[in-house]
Amino acid sequence: MTEETFQHTPVMPDEVLKALRPERGGVFLDATIGGAGHAALFLEAESAVQVIGFDQDPEAVEAARRRLEQFGERARVYEVNFRDIGRTEDTEGIGNLAGALLDLGVSSHQIDTSARGFSFRPGTSLRMRMGGTTGEGAPAAEFLNRSDEHELGRVFREGDERRWRALAREVVWRRRTRPFSTSDDLVGALAGVLGRRASEQEKARLFQAVRIAVNDELGALSEGLTEIQSRLAPEGRLAVLSYHSLEDRIVKRAFREWGADCICPPGFPECRCRGESLGRVVTRKPLRPTDEEVARNPRARSARLRVWENSGK
Predict the structure, then answer these.
(1) pTM here?
(2) In the chain, which residue ranges form alpha helices assigned H by DSSP?
């Protein structure tokens, strides 16, 4: 595989650069490095910048290393899920970060590669493993064939599927005679519930919900946010690009909690928590891509950028 097969058009590049201020120098973590689009911008912005990159996808890691090899020792890329920062020998000492970026969701390369199983194009295998074709974790077909109706309904409901109950029942009914295997099976179940052909938007929303569940993306986000925040230097910043309301809600809640002086439950007679905020929210409302960027890169349409700054203490 070459770098060209994993092109990375960075989303909201100007806004991310303004938020993380790489011109100040220091060590930056790109915790979802993908094809290294954002990371390359950090390194080009200032010669005193170093970048540490994470990605659980071995193809992304290979592509990022190729793209960043011109920067020599200023760039290090590891095959690791950002939720595991501190749990592996190579990354456990990472700290004092001037900035960190989480660009959530799935890359264009992953969507466009049929073997990865993220697409709803006809005949695509239901895999959806973020870690690659050999990554750990149950693929989407196994999730659809083994999850009970309650679990399926929860995932569909959280994925903003309005007819989530009916869809969960439809999946359970259909798999009794024919286990789910390809994108056609899931698209067919959705069409059966809707009573018509599903739109591209409806299919994309459903496949995104299944992908998030299969890869435990929300659990990883909750864990990873805390791990990264604890490794920021004074006045270091964390920028998060999310593409789904559930992701954005987790980020918003974490930032709000970190900014509170007291996080004890209501009614506690005295404060027993840390008793001071960890820093401040830089973006009171999420930043959105411009119309011009969306015209150039339609997959940026749903992006939301939130930024946090660590305490200067």
Answers:
(1) 0.86
(2) 13-20, 37-45, 58-68, 108-112, 140-146, 149-158, 164-175, 183-194, 200-214, 217-229, 245-258, 291-296
